[in-house]
Design brief:
The protein is α/β, with parallel strands linked by helices. 45% of the residues lie in helices and 16% in strands. The chain has a single domain, classed as Response regulator (Rossmann fold), CATH 3.40.50. It is built from six helices and five strands, in the order H-E-H-E-H-E-H-E-H-E-H. The chain has a five-stranded parallel beta sheet with strand order 2-1-3-4-5, with helices on both faces. Helix 3 runs parallel beside helix 4. The longest helix has 13 residues.
Length: 141
């Protein structure tokens, strides 16, 4: 298998999945988490997230509030119903307190306004995956 094939196979089994219709934003967040030692992949639709959730292996889903084929809150509620052990984070380019309240009622770990604060999401993701050690470069916790 080529290294490119190995990398893609590893991404398909990554425990963190980022979903955003803005594939550039999703890829950037997934890449940042991967570079910090937390394997992550990215997709652009709720359908793709649900397919991966059914396959197992997911530990954390980071989804935008507005996906092309379903609202992010609907997706995260479905994931919590299917796989309650999977952590969820909701991202949004437009902060709305009522959306955050509904998301928290659904059991999200964090409501992340965009641009996403990588150190905060990294800390939550690391805790979710059971990796509490700080990444190289440190910083306060």
């Amino acid at each position: 298998m080529t290294s490119l094939g190995s990398a893609r196979e590893a991404a398909l089994t990554a425990p963190i999945l980022v979903a955003d219709v803005d594939r550039h934003a999703a890829r950037a967040l997934a890449t940042a988490l991967s570079q910090l030692g937390l394997p992550a992949d990215h997709v652009g639709s709720a359908r793709e997230v649900l397919e991966r959730a059914l396959d197992g292996g997911l530990r954390l889903v980071i989804a935008d509030v507005a996906l092309a084929d379903a609202p992010g809150l609907t997706l995260l509620s479905r994931i919590r119903a299917m796989r309650p052990e999977v952590g969820t984070i909701l991202t949004s380019g437009e902060y709305r307190p009522e959306v955050e309240l509904r998301a928290r009622e659904c059991g999200i770990l964090y409501y992340a306004p965009k641009p996403v604060a990588i150190p905060i999401v990294h800390a939550i993701a690391a805790r979710t995956l059971g990796r509490l050690e700080p990444h190289a470069g440190g910083g306060r916790r």
